Amino acid sequence: xxxxxxxxxxxxxxxxCLSPKSWSLSLKMAIGCLFILLSxxxxxxxxxxxxxxxxxxxxxxxxxxxxxxxxxxxxSWGLIGDLKKTSALVLxxxxxxxxxxxxxxxFSAAASKSGLNLQLTRLQLAGRGVRTKRxxxxxxxxxxxxxxxxxxxKGNRLDSTFSADLxxxxxxxxxxxxxxxxQGEKEPEHFLSYxxxxxxxxxxxxxxxxxxxxxxxNRIEFxxxxxxxxxxxxxxxIHRIELSFKIILEWRRFPFSTQDYLCIQPVFIGSGAGxxxxxxxxxxxxxxxxxxxxxxxxxxxxxxxxxxxxxxxxKVISPxxxxxxxxxxxxxxxxxxEYDDPDCIEVFMAERWGSGGWDGGGATWSSGQAAAQxxxxxxxxxVPCSGARSCRSCGSLNRNHLAHELGHVLNLLHPGDSRSxxxxxxxxxxxxxxxxCADNPASQSExxxxxxxxxxxxxxxxxxxxxxxxxxx
Length: 473
Description:
CATH topology of the largest domain: Collagenase (Catalytic Domain)
CATH architecture of the largest domain: 3-Layer(aba) Sandwich
CATH class of the largest domain: Alpha Beta
Number of helices: 7
Shape: globular
Largest sheet: 9 strands, mixed
Order of helices and strands: HHEEEEEEEHEEEEEEHEEEHEEEEHEEHE
Strand content: 25-35%
């Protein structure tokens, strides 16, 4: 009732103030009228603002309704592209040095009030080694985890901050490895590298407006700059990395239907291709099965011609004296030091493991890093009965062993295992440990496909398309 009374009084005074008679009223009344008129003006302004806001909101909701089905159809969208051999400056304890990096950048896309929200979801780089006071660093891996990403359509500007794992083989040389595998496994067959921590930023501009309505295969140019500073050191040989780059990004639906490639460099023991005593007899079949299993994930292997290490003492790999068979064998490490290709994953083929070694098995070192290497044996296809076991020969058994090890190269762990910076493999898939006298499963999973990564992976030159063909969804 009191509100109604005040409202009636306001309307009465408004009529008086709008009347010409009010011009001759007292000063007190004139001030009151001024207040009334000001209130009316603000009311009109407020109504206009509200109308404009409502109009913008309707326009935004219309865009959202148009864009949402696109995001929901066959998953969300993203922009993906690869850096091609980009010049970079790396600061070490010997000063600033120039080297080259290549790698992958991925942004996810989602609707926002401004039109489009982009988030850095993957940044992985592999760089050529640099000189330090302790020696050559070896191939450098940088794997980033995004903190925040801001995209402003005005100016097509993007700014992102991230934390990152930094690895180079010099760390392994001085620090050693962390045994992988689930707790309680007697013989972990992949070895994880210690990594340094870094903080970084990615800034840049798109060549044109990023479309609100993405289309499969559309491309857009991005000019960016990456800066990385060491934050937690192990050796502390690399302090800072800076690079400017130009990249072509392509719109793709998640999961990406791209053809990814990883270079494989086989390394055999012998004097050359004409050596009848050279190792590598099992490689072709092991590689063929690997191509079939990982081809289901649209990951393909480009296999180079084998190189040879002319030292027959490596044909039988034995652990160091008194070493636990589950600990990295010294002789295997010596073999891996014989050859390194910074652009490829090396697969070293010995003839067999010596007494006390792994029975017909093999192992991966620096899992998930650009420096990853595999040591395996021809005996995979003729697994004997160990002298310590009462059994018949296992025979031609471990056909999927190399595919399993390549899963570790692709940053995947055994099912049930969990480690920082790596992804857990799917139960029942090729990432399952084989056990004695049993092969790894040939099955593949969508999760394995989506989570597989390595800084050395690159896209098909022609951005070819591919569809997953997995037994496990």
